[in-house]
Amino acid sequence: MPAMTTVADLLVYLDRAAPFAGAAEWDAVGLQIGDPVSELNRAGVCHEVTREVVDHLMVEPGEVLVSYHSLLFEPTRTLVAGDTPEGISLALARLGVALIVVHTAFDVAEDGGADALATALGLDDVTPLSEPDEDARPLGRMGTSRTTVRELAARVSVELGVTARLADATRGGTRQPDTERQRVAVVPGSGSSFIEAAAAAGATVLVTGDVSHHRAQQARAVGLSLIDAGHIPTERPGLAKLVQLVEGALDVVDLTHLDPHPWEPIDG
């Protein structure tokens, strides 16, 4: 375990594993709250900075919180107590807890979020997948699955702990009948913008989250099946990797069980 003495040391360590410069242009990563020279003994790791995460840190404290999702995206004018991102930021500052965000920098990294999702789904021959004109940021991956589309959707549901939605291009779409071999593109989080790139790369299926009706229809029209497992669930395999990464530097308070997935199935 390398010697981590300050927030700045941890930033350097994380930047080597998942360079912050690789994050998408719209993203907010790196140090969002705190003093780089603050000394460290223990780090919390979470998926998203919620009130539950802050409450847990009051019971089991650490000097820094490493979050996958960003807390502050928009320009901030005020810090007023409450459950808004600004209010949670104020709470972290009062606790003396620094906040480091990795998000898409971790997705693109080798053995990061996208690779973890591909591994969880048992894909072989995995290669990077980038949006058009985004060659420097391969947020997705593509590999081979020796399954039918419906078998793959069932595996996604089991591995990610959800009931995935399937828009099957082999049933009412433009593709030929289902086969027992798929070229699968995966993008953690919200990846419907990768439909064109996945289809152009020869994918038969895209696994991601946050897919709208119109994007699903667009995919089926070009012969691409879509498996929507939800934003947070598609990021869960990467969270396990993030915990392991931070454990290589510091003692860790694992807060990833405080899952921020807002949806739940309702039986009729």
Care to describe what's here?
With 268 residues, the chain is of the alpha/beta class. The protein has helices at 7-17, 51-59, 85-95, 103-108, 113-120, 149-160, 195-200, 213-221, 231-247, and strands at residues 30-33, 42-46, 64-67, 98-101, 124-129, 140-145, 165-167, 182-190, 205-209, 225-228, 251-254. The strands form two sheets. A six-stranded mixed β-sheet has the order 5-6-8-9-10-7. Strand 3, helix 3 and strand 4 form a beta-alpha-beta unit.
Helix content: 25-40%
Distance between termini?
Answer: 51 Å
Helical segment count: 9
In percent terms, what proportion of residues is strand? Answer: 15-25%
Q: Poorly predicted ranges (pLDDT <50, ≥5 residues)?
A: none
Give the strand tally. Answer: 11
Q: In the CATH hierarchy, what is the class of the largest domain?
A: Alpha Beta
What integer is the average pLDDT?
93
CATH topology of the largest domain: Udp-n-acetylmuramoylalanyl-d-glutamate--2,6- Diaminopimelate Ligase, Chain: A, domain 1
Q: Reading side by side through the largest sheet, how are the strands ordered?
A: 5-6-8-9-10-7
Shape: elongated
CATH architecture of the largest domain: 3-Layer(aba) Sandwich
Instruction: Report the order of strands and helices.
Output: HEEHEHEHHEEHEEHEHEHE
- CATH fourth-tier homologous superfamily of the largest domain: NIF3 (NGG1p interacting factor 3)-like
* Biggest sheet record: 6 strands, mixed
What structural class do the secondary elements suggest? alpha/beta
